[in-house]
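Record 1 of the preview.
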Amino acid sequence: MDKKDEIISMQNDILQDMLKKQFKSLTDDLWGIKLPDTALPFDAPPAGEPKTEVSEGKPVSESVKEALPQKEAEEKAEPEETIEDLKAELNSYIGLDHIKSEVNSLINWIGIMNARKQEGLPVPDMSLHMVFSGNPGTGKTMIARLMARIYKCLGILSKGHLVEVDRSGLVAGYIGQTAIKTQEVISKALGGVLFIDEAYALSNKGENDYGQEAIDTLLKAMEDHREDFIVIVAGYTELMQRFISSNPGLESRFNRFMHFPDYTVEELVGIFDMRCGKSAYTLSEDARKILPKILEEKNKDPKSFGNGRGVRNLFEHAISNQADRLSQDMENLTKEKLMQITSEDLMNAASESDGSTLEKAALESTLKDLLANAEKWTPEGTSEENTGTDEHADGSSKDPQS
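->
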């Protein structure tokens, strides 16, 4: 080593010593962490070692982690969900009896297959990708989120998160860009579930359409990452059947179908009650009587009304109308008035929530008939004692809007 190199080496030693002291002082002041003198990102690594290692051969990140108080680490740790917790949540959902049965059957099957693996027995190769079919607002996205967590709990997925996209999130406008765009989404979903809503739109073949490129990229990823990647596609029943049958690769990978039926009037009333309960609202006696009739009329076209999503819109318009009504008499507000939704609030909401032609005059006439007969109108299969709210033992319930 010549004189010049010696000088440079001495300068480096001095600079490192200064930076070491500054860094240690900074961590003491900001985090209250007493780092060892060697835990410095500026220390020169031994020859041949990566530069991310400190002089003792340990990454700075590990030194910091070791210095963190154990109590702080414990506070950040989230409790692991159990399969019983998830099954209880599933059973708390309103309606969806067939879906609950299907999911429970799948949980049982995976549990037995895991037990066979532990005993060294062969396990049949079965795809866990799914097709969800049904009208909007029947709970498809809600169940997809739950399935991601169930798969994680059962050891199928490493993360258990859900990434939701539609055609616009996968398909680009130029040749070659769609594969890149789709792959970026897939990368985000690895370890979890990729949920593709209205997936049938990918196969709408036309001039300058790159949906097939997205499908091809997706099929390859499903094969390459089959141990830690689940895809759930969703949409209208007929269109999804056509979509799956349009491509042999899709048919071979998607062989588990779940159909989400439209909600009954009783279940829609239950969803509305659940929203009221969560937001601390109550229904007046008149409003309670007219609500099933409103939902029956609106749900004659489930695709337009949107099932659970339509109930959400009706509820939001009702409380908006309540606020307009109460604002006219601010001096006489009470807690009871702030909580109560009246038949007037509901009937106004019914006329405006989805642009339908449901006339307020017709509803008022129906309500008068109900009150005159002193009976609560209920759809077939309901009773005055049953409000339609499907609650779990702990009082929880779920509102499907997808």
